[in-house]
Amino acid sequence: MTPVDVAARPVLRRRRRDFGSASMGEALLWLGPALVLILGVVVYPAITLFATSFGTYSITGLRKGSAGFDNYVNFLTSPDLGQVMWNTLVWVVVVVVLTIVIGLGLAQFLSKSFFGRRFVRWAVIVPWAAALVISSQLFRLMYDYYHGIINHVLLALGIIHTPIDWLGDSRFVMPSMILVGVFVSLPFTAYLFVAGLNAIPADVYEAARIDGATPWQTYRTITLPLLRPAILIGVVLNMIYVFNSFPVIWILNGSNPGVGNDTMITYMYKLAFKSGDHDIGMSAAAGIFNVLIILIAVGIYLRFVNWRQGDKA
Question: Of 113, 215, 245, 267, which is least packed with CB atoms within 10 Å of its CB?
Fold first, then answer.
């Protein structure tokens, strides 16, 4: 041990002692802003939502008294609930699956070296940088029955002979919304996978090439397994984002009557502000139900992933 190391030991011990003796007040001073933000943005709204779900309210939003569990019973026995839950399942599953699959291919493309790669990467991130309201409104204009560019292009190419009511015909509303959902979800997912691909050591691919592995074997046995953490994060975050995607569905489908293409999020909004009763209590009960749905769905997925990993181990 050198003389410098011996001289530094008392200083290190004093720093450790000072760090360990930090008071609770000092810790709260540093954590205070974050705790206040969490209390104001997460905890307080959650408590208010839970309390609201047990109340009965006038059409103007004034609390008239306690409703007990009537709001939950009315919500769970609603004749529209089955259709809305099916719409939500289709919306979330299809958008997430397409986003992950297309995102993997797009990330593989963006990780390669080619002329203009920087410009392409900037172009890909634009839909994510723009607000969902802007992107959704842009697609609404593109889907327009009379003036939308999509109908004009398809008519010019001879693919269709009459314009299609993309946002009015029940056969096309959900596919049209899914297209927008995938479009706005792809940039984040693709860049997440690009980061995962860049973290894979080049030596692994070199060893596979020397062993004579084909591109598909390399992708299946090296790339996908090493991308597993990124895929896990991408699926979980997209499940949450897509489930809670209110602007896309509301802007594209909000003007349609009924709940034929509504998801749980827009249905909750309609219960409070668009139904004849303006049932705020029932809408709050739907909000609690939505939170439970997404927590259970994410929990099942994570459990399934852990089971698969344990089985392989």
Answer: 113
